[in-house]
Amino acid sequence: MLVADHPKKSQILQALEDADTTVTIEDPLENTMVLNMGPQHPATHGVLRVLVKLDGETVVNSVPELGYLHRGYEKIGENSTYHEFIPHTDRLDYLSPLSNNVGYVLAVEKLIGVDVPVRAQYIRVLICEMARVASHLVAVGSMAMDVGALTVLLWTFREREKLMDIYDVLCGARFTTSYTRIGGLQQDWTDTCTAMLTKFLDEFDESLKEVGGLLFTNKIFIDRCEDVGYISREQCIALGMSGPILRASGVPRDLRRDNPYLVYNDLDFDVITAQESDSLARFYVRFSEARESAKILRQALQNMPQGPIHADETKKVLPRKDRIYTKMEELIHDFMLINLGIDPPVGEVYQGIESSKGELGFYLVSDGTGHPWRLKIRSPSMVNLSALPVMIKGAMISDIVAIIGSIDPVMGEADK
Question: What is the reported pLDDT for 17?
Answer without folding.
Answer: 63
